[in-house]
Amino acid sequence: MVKAGEMAVVGDVRPLDDGLIDTSLPWALRPIALLGWLLPVQVNSETLTWELAQAGYRHIDSRSVFVGTRVLSTIVLALATMLAVWGLRLESHEMALLVGLAVAVGYHAPMMFVRARQSRRQTEITLNLPDALDLLVICVEAGQGLNAALIKVGKETSFSSPALGQDLMIVNNEMRAGVSRTQALRNLSLRTGVDDVRSLVAVMIQSDRFGTSVAHALRIHSDSLRTRRRQRAEEKARKAPIKLLFPLVFCIFPALLVVLLAPGMLQLFRALSQP
User: Fold this and answer.
1) What is the pLDDT of residue 64?
2) What does the alpha-carbon distance between residue 85 and residue 40 come to, in Å, rounded to a whole number?
3) Would you list the domain boundaries of the chain?
4) Which of 67, 156, 177, 236 is the most exposed place for a label (fewest CB within 10 A)?
5) How far apart are CA 25 and CA 65, in angstroms?
6) What secondary structure does DSSP assign to 175-199, as a single string?
7) Which residues of 85-117 are buried (b: 16+ CB within 10 A; e: fewer)?
8) How far, in Å, CA of 257 to CA of 118, rounded?
9) What's the confidence (pLDDT) of residue 5?
10) pLDDT recorded at residue 17
């Protein structure tokens, strides 16, 4: 796959390169991208584009690399499975089953990897968004414009949350490339796929459209985000006993019963076995 953040692609908009985004594709990935480019129906999938973007893969050829990786992994796993079981003298239907399983794993593994990375990235953004929003409020109240505040927050947030900082810098790059602030913020919402970011973008667009105080709206939204984060933590805490039920009943309690009852049962068997 392409290194995360190499190229931000939002529709037909490509942000300017300020050192954060590398637009070159490594030589090792170019044959894979060419292989994926030969499948235009899948490569042009808009859903796949946004899923890769939400996972952090923004290079212009990310779709081609993904499709090529999927095809290559399917073929390699199928051939490796055939070679591995060739000397086992299996029946034809058994070999077909194993090869089919390898094909399924090779086909779905790249998407599973992308979605796992997407989930980790979205979790990171969700956890760090309230702190970034507080910093944005401070910058706006200090007299900075919203664009300058986004640049400042993006740079400062990159240390604690590279994903969030990178996406905020891309917003600035898009506005420098001529995209309106409203469209750049909407692209941020689509690029992250996080509900909290989506609600923040809606607040910022509404405040910009009606001319209300941006700092006041952001401060209120920051409080609501912290309340929502606390509610999510409380929800996870309430679910913890239910999640512990299975290991308690099937793992811990049987072992505890064996430790407590085994000595007594042994003595009882010995007593009953004596004439």
Assistant:
1) 82
2) 34
3) 27-123, 125-229
4) 236
5) 10
6) HHTT--HHHHHHHHHHHH--HHHHH
7) eeeeeeeeeebeebbeebbeebeeebeeebeeb
8) 43
9) 39
10) 37
- What mean pLDDT do residues 189-197 have? 89
Nearest CA among 141, 131, 135, 151 for reference residue 196:
131
Q: How many other C-beta atoms are found inside a 10 Å radius of the C-beta of residue 68?
A: 24
- Reported as a single tens digit per residue, the pLDDT across 101-146 is 999 999 999 999 999 999 999 999 988 888 888 888 898 888 888 8
The alpha carbon of 179 is separated from its chain's Cα centroid by a whole number of angstroms, namely 26
Q: Are 106 and 73 in contact (CB under 8 A)?
A: yes
Q: What CATH architecture does domain 125-229 belong to? A: Up-down Bundle (1.20)
Distance from C-alpha of 231 to C-alpha of 132, rounded to nearest angstrom = 19
Query: Using one digit for the tens of pLDDT, what is the confidence trace for 211-269?
Result: 778 888 888 888 888 888 888 888 888 888 888 888 888 888 888 888 888 888 888 88
pTM: 0.71
Report the distance separating Cα 137 and Cα 11, nearest Å: 30
The H or E element that residue 18 is part of is none
Sign (positive/negative) of CA torsion 27, 21, 70, 10? Answer: negative
CA separation for the pair 229, 222 (Å, rounded): 11
Six-digit token pair at 169?
């810098």
Would you state the torsion angle of the CA atoms of residues 100, 107, 126, 207, taken in this order, to the nearest 10 degrees? -130
State the DSSP string of 47-109. HHHHHHHHTT---TTHHHHHHHHHHHHHHHHHHHHHHHHGGGT--HHHHHHHHHHHHHHHHHH
